[in-house]
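can u pls check wat happens w/ iron/sulfur cluster
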Amino acid sequence: MQVVLGGIHVTALPEEGLAHADAIVSGEAEGLWTQVLEDAEKGRLGRTRSLTQRRVYKQEGWPDLVGLPMPRRDLTQSLRYVPFGVVQTTRGCPFPCEFCSVSTYNGTTFRFRPVPDVIRELEQCAPRVLFGDDNVMVHVKYSRELFEAMVPLRKHWVGQASLAALHKVENVALMARAGCKALFIGFESVDDVAVTGAGKRQNKPRKYHDIVRMLADHGIAVWGSFIFGLDDDRGDSFRRTVEFCVESKLTMALFALLTPYPGTRLYQRLVEEQRLTKDRWWLSTDHDTDAPFFTPKHLTRDELRAGWVRAWREMYAYPAIAKRYDFGLEHSWIQNVAFWPINLLMHELAERKIAGGQRDFRKHRLLDVPFGL
Ligand code: SF4
């Protein structure tokens, strides 16, 4: 068997990838893949070569997204995959969020697939779609054109969105008409100073509650994402974040410890400020107990870790789950079908993996879903 690795890890650190593969693909793969396959067929890849001779296929720059090949969905029919057709419409992001790797690895400008290409792919897809974009509603002109064209397809879809364009009711109404049922949103922090300090200036915490309500009124469930460990986080950040999630009745939320990915501005700054606590932290064998890998500004590492665990447990305690269930969202099947299984699974994750340190909490979980976390 020949092994080729790709993705952001080997793009950032090719030598780490080459130690485990016959070849690596650095950057976006579509324009290189045919060559990789031809070389594999002719035996030009090979782990027997010395590290310096192994093949590196490098994509220079940011290729345009016109005429991308159709994915082989017939290869992913198993129940082990999420039961959604995964489709990507854009790449790159111009926002300057300090912790994010997207602009480093996909560029600081938007690139779009032509709307007719996307519609052709959607027509061949399952009725349920997951947009793999980092941001489905951020270049408003493009997104409006796409969503208008999607209305007749009558798909149901979920995706990730930035808050930048969600304060406008006409944008939300169009997404709902185009079949949006749930959005994963990077709120990052409920604190104005913390979120601005992280470079995510498009987020305005004072508007969060109204935006979540507006989405709920249009039948769109919200999965929130939050980061703990930003420079302005303090001891009460954990409690305030969970309070917001429960009061706003978020369907689900993920809490991350701030993570300095190589190649990001955050990583560079923490190195310069001598606040990284472990070189090459990503090679740690136990992220679950070693993180965070930097010294926070207003908390100790132990306080940050303990607050993060507390937030998970409070968010997924049974009374908090019940309080978050939104009867007003009865017209969203995602809310109806998925709310209780997802939240009970997240309760297990919080208690067994986050708080209990079990590496494979799935061995013990209550719900045996075929695909999962
Ligand atoms: S966090 Fe979202 S908005 Fe910010 S740079 Fe990354 S993809 Fe763009």
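The longest helix spans residues 333-354.
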